Each structure stands twice: as C-alpha cells, then as structure tokens.
Amino acid sequence: MAEYRRSVAVKIMSQWKGLTLTELLSAFKQAYVDLPPPSYVYDIGPFILNNDLCFSMKDNDKNYCDGILNSALYLERRNDGIILLDGVKYIYFVQPLRDNIQLVFLVDATHYVTLVKKQYPFGIFLSMDVFTQGRSIYSDNIGQSLVFPVTAFTSGLNYLPELTYVFGFSKRIFLLVCSVIIILAAVISCVIYKTYFSLIYGIYDQGLKETRAITENQLSFVVSGGLFFNDADIRKVHDIFYAAIYDSLTGAYSRKSFDDSIKDIIGTGDSYLCFFDVDRFKFVNDNVGHLFGDEVLIYVVHYLKDKMNGFNFRIYRFGGDEFAIIYSGELCDLIRILKGLTDFEVGGLRCSCSFGVAAEKECTTAEALKLLADNRLYFSKNNGRSQITWK
After folding, report:
1. Three-state secondary structure readout of 115-150
2. Can you give the residue ranges of the GGDEF domain (predicted)?
C-alpha cells in the first residue's frame, strides 16, 4: 500500500506548484484513475478537506464526507486514530498538505484483518480481536476461546494508530483440525500397522516352516528356498539337530534328551522310569554279528513305539543295548507291554530283555529315581534275566 501511495503522490507532486484547489482535486482524481490500486490496498479514500469542504478522490467510494467533517479530527497536523462512520469503526490517517488542505485516508478494520490473515499460511484458521485504548474496533466474536493466543502492539509503528491485536486459533477450528489430523494419523497408522504386521507375520510364519523343516524333516514346508536357510542348509541343520536329539540307529531319543526330560517328571505323581537292556547282547554281536545285533535293537524300539502308541511315553537309548523309558499312566499297562519283550524272536534267534521299573512317587530327586530303577534292573538280571522288577 505504501508503494501505491508513493506512486500517486509522485504523480501529483510533479504538478503540485501553482495548482488551485479545483486543479488539485482534478489531479488527485486523475492520478487514481491512471494508477488503479492493487488488490492488497485496503484504504478508503483519500478524501481532501478544505475548511468546511470535503471531496472524495475515488468516484466508486462511499461518500463519508459528512461523517468526517462532523468528527473531531486533528486536521492541523499529521495524526491517526479511530472514527465511527455509519456504525462501522475505521482507522483514519490525516496528512496536512497546504493552506488548510488535508488528505484523509480510512482503513476498514474488517478488510484490514482479512488481508492480515492472508499473510500467514494458516491465516484462514486465525481468529483476531483489535483494540484501541481498551475499546474493540474489530472482533471475530470468539470471546476467550483462543488456542495459543498472542498479543501484539503497534505503539512502535508511527504509521499506525496505537492498536492492540489479540490473535490465535479458534478453539472450535483448532479441535476440528486436530480431529482431522488424528483421524488421518489413525488411518495411516492402521495402514502401516497392517503392512508391517503382514510383513512380520510372513517372516514369523516362514521361520516356523523352516523350524518344522529342520525338526520334522519336512522339506515340503519350504518352497523354492527358505528365508533364513536354503534347502541344503536346512538338511545340514536337520542332521545336526536330529543327531543331538535322536539315536540315528533306532530312532529313540538320545541320552542328552533323557537328561533334560528326567528332571521334569519329579512331582507329577503318575510317572515311571524304566531301565532295560537286551540279555546276552554281547553274545549276539560276537556270534551272529553286529549287523544282526543292530536289527535286534531296532526291533525292540519299533515294538515299544507300536505297542505304546497312544500312551504318554518316550524311549531313550543310552548306548549299546541300554535303554530307558519315561512313562506317565497306569503301571499295569506298562507292565503288560514290557512283557512282550521278556521273550521274543528276531530272525529265528530267541532274545529277551530285563527291566527295572521305579515310580516317581517313590523318590524325591531325579538321581534317586535313576538309582532305584537301575538297582531293580540289576536285580532282574541277577535273578535269571528275562523278567520285570517294579517293586
């Protein structure tokens, strides 16, 4: 606006000297015609005052001359303030020219505030109150419902009257914008959560498949290579896992697995530990051969797995012909199944096993339980073999 006024003033000043009042008025009007105001100019006028006369320089402006003449303006010096015209408060500026001639500009507070708001990226969400000497000249009628209110003063600006600005975000608009942001954030979060959940679940599911491929030797679970291991690596890891958990010859659990399991049965109340071995197994190996001896061991384990299918049990091989069974259930069922190995035949050779059974409730520690089962096994062997001792 200042640049616009300067351009108009330069045009007039070039013709200033020697002009009569009528010629001066004509020069002003022509200057405003030749230099149309930009969109950001928010002043009304100017008006030229000479004693009791008032003239508007813009034909399209509302004629406020009567109101200006009837107001107590300090026309003899440059000043500014607030004036009430047709019930609307305006900021006025008085600029003395010469010979009792004054130039008066009016600023519509509403238009002024609208333009101020446009200067800020989020100005459309701003609410503003403007005061002078404690009196409101403009208000968005929001009372005290401002968020992050800020107060500014124009006391240091000599080209504006002393005004106080209170502006901030309307609480209603602020809550509305926050609600929209929260909803958008929730939607985005849901999309991100779903995407990452699907990704993490996919990794977790693939890990489970590869775990099953390793522990259960089910390579069909891994299609076209794995995420963590390829097919060849899975086979290698499976072989290592299987060797640590199972006996490679018979498929029974290993001695290490037994040491991990025996600790868990103490205090269960219905568990039993059985130690057994094949009678005269050294004689079988020495006279029939180790391969035949292996067949005997395989037969024993397969027999127990078949007969005890559906029962809660595990078979362990300690080494050679020494085995153990951890069983939970009725003792009579265990004895009935074990009797099938007190006299059996493999490849035309009569074989037998001796057993020692100890109830978990008879002991308070795993070591005591193992010692009791071992003593009963040796009692069976020393008492003629091919028998079961359980008490």
Report:
1. HHHHCCCCHHHEEEEEEECCEEEEECCCCCCEEEEE
2. 269-391
